[in-house]
């Protein structure tokens, strides 16, 4: 059993089981053997095959990202950041997805490799990847070294636009059922993979694109297999209005009514509650339903903030007792930046410096995500738990002075200070380089795939526009 010792770490974010919280510990040893943490404390006296000097280092738990779409989001760099439709309450989701989509599996493979590198380099060790299944997905995950929670997406309906002010649905229950069956096959194959780090999440894509029957059966399949379940809920005002039109209930009220909430259910976003200022529906029950159900929220501030929207507000969800996790819905795939943005937007929404603390977002990115995934062996540094660890370089200029290294990391340095990453006790990032994948090579392939995607846009767009007319460059190109 090979043992790695981090000797005399300046700082460790360790788990205090008695207080049930993360705490700083100074000048301690941290040892892990195979995939498990073996020792956290003073003066480790056991064997060690490898010794890492802990001087100038903060060891922290690997981060848990419970919402991402790596198979296509890198294609949207330069396209997505300022794209949206005012007539759709600012969201660009529906127009973008119709005009721009990963053209082939080579594009998906390039995107996933590129995104996985960004995630590892920002300290993510566990990833929920919500993607349409593609050939090579499981193998790339295994190669990456990430702890993968594969969430193969499927739906009964496809969105489409005929104008910029109405969302239409093309329904096929048979397509939804076929996707559901295929998703369970992919999940079973991931779990059976010999690397032992892969698992699955049952993932009907959106509350408004799946029939009640498909959602109920998906939730039952997750229960049966003791797997988490995820679905996008309350992610746009358009969706909220559509669900009220169909059922007389908000998306969260309807999800509760059909019995798909509860522990192990992760709601993608749940941003537009009935009380949200962009919705202002007459009921006042969504937050209490979320909290009482035990469902978790995957909060991804970046894509919404780009539309001018923020959660109202993270501290209120936390105070209500909602299990809060974080995700990287779009590029950049940088969970530390999401921690930073979430903390600042929460204070803006609450108009209160004390509404949230940076430790709330460390919790969300570690134990919150672990709870959402029903995994009490992740997200904490304590003996017997999984050796998913990040070593932060305190000498990084943006970490200095490192009086409070968690604040320095979240508010200043972010991924620039992430030096080494271990998953299941195996080193996957060393000295800011990903050991398992090739980001530079993936970047070349992503750029080529983006060109293929843009060429296809006029055939897909509802107004038959060229890509540069849907999303012009930010500056004119001069002669
Ligand atoms: Zn999403």
* N-end to C-end Cα span: 64 Å
Structural class: alpha/beta
Extract low-pLDDT stretches: none
Shape estimate: globular
Number of helices: 15
Mean pLDDT: 98
User: Which molecules are bound besides the chains?
Assistant: zinc ion
- What share of the residues lie within helices? 25-40%
Question: Mind telling me the C-alpha Rg?
Answer: 22 Å
What's the story with the biggest beta sheet? 9 strands, mixed
Total beta strands? 20
Q: DSSP strand (E) fraction? A: 25-35%
Describe the structure.
The strands form 3 sheets. Strands 1, 2, 3, 4, 5, 17, 18, 19 and 20 form a 9-stranded mixed β-sheet that branches. Strands 6, 7, 8, 11, 12, 13, 14, 15 and 16 form a 9-stranded parallel β-sheet that branches. The protein has a two-stranded antiparallel ribbon with strand order 9-10. With 479 residues, it is α/β, with parallel strands linked by helices. Helix 2 packs parallel to helix 3 and helix 11 packs across helix 12. A hairpin with a 2-residue loop joins strand 2 and strand 3. It contains 15 helices and 20 strands. The chain starts with a strand and ends in a 9-residue tail after the last helix. The mean pLDDT is 98. The site of zinc ion has 6 residues, from loops.
């Amino acid at each position: 059993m090979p043992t790695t010792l981090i000797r005399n770490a300046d700082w460790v974010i360790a788990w205090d089981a008695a207080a049930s919280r993360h705490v700083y510990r100074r000048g301690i040893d941290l040892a892990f053997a195979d995939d498990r943490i073996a020792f956290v404390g003073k003066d480790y006296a056991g064997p060690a095959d490898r010794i890492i000097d802990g001087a100038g280092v903060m060891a922290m738990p690997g981060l848990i990202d419970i919402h991402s779409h790596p198979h296509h989001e890198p294609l949207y760099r330069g396209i997505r950041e300022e794209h949206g439709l005012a007539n759709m309450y600012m969201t660009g989701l529906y127009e973008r997805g119709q005009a721009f989509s990963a053209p082939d599996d080579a594009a998906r493979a390039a995107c996933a490799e590129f995104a996985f590198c960004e995630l590892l380099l920002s300290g993510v060790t566990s990833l929920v990847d919500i993607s349409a299944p593609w050939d090579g997905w499981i193998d790339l995950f295994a190669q990456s070294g990430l702890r993968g929670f594969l969430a193969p997406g499927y739906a009964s309906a496809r969105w489409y636009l005929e104008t910029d002010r109405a969302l239409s649905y093309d329904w096929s229950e048979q397509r939804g059922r076929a996707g559901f069956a295929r998703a369970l096959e992919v999940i079973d194959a991931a779990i059976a993979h010999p690397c032992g780090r892969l698992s699955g999440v049952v993932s009907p894509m959106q509350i408004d694109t799946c029939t009640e029957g498909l959602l109920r059966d998906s939730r039952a399949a997750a229960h049966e297999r003791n797997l988490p379940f995820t679905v996008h809920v309350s992610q746009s005002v358009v969706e909220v209005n559509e669900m009220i039109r169909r059922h007389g209930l908000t998306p969260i009220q309807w999800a509760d009514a059909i019995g798909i909430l509860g522990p192990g259910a992760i709601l993608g976003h749940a941003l537009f509650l009935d009380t949200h200022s962009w919705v202002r529906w007459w009921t006042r029950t969504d937050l209490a339903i979320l909290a009482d159900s035990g469902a978790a929220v995957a909060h991804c501030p970046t894509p919404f903030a780009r539309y001018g929207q923020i959660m109202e507000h993270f501290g209120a969800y936390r105070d209500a007792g909602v299990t809060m996790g974080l995700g990287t819905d779009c590029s950049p795939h940088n969970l530390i930046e999401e921690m930073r943005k979430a903390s600042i937007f929460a204070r803006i929404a609450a108009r209160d410096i004390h509404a949230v603390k940076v430790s709330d977002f460390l919790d969300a990115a570690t134990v919150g995500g672990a709870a959402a995934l029903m995994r009490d062996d992740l997200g904490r540094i304590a003996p017997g738990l999984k050796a998913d660890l990040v070593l932060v370089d305190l000498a990084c200029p943006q970490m200095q002075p490192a009086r409070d290294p968690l604040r320095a990391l979240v508010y200043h340095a972010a991924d620039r200070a992430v030096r080494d990453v271990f998953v299941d006790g195996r080193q996957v990032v060393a000295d800011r380089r990903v050991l398992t994948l090739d980001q530079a090579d993936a970047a070349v392939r992503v750029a080529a795939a983006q060109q293929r995607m843009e060429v296809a846009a006029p055939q897909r767009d509802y107004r038959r526009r060229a890509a540069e007319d849907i999303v012009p460059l930010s500056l004119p190109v001069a002669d």
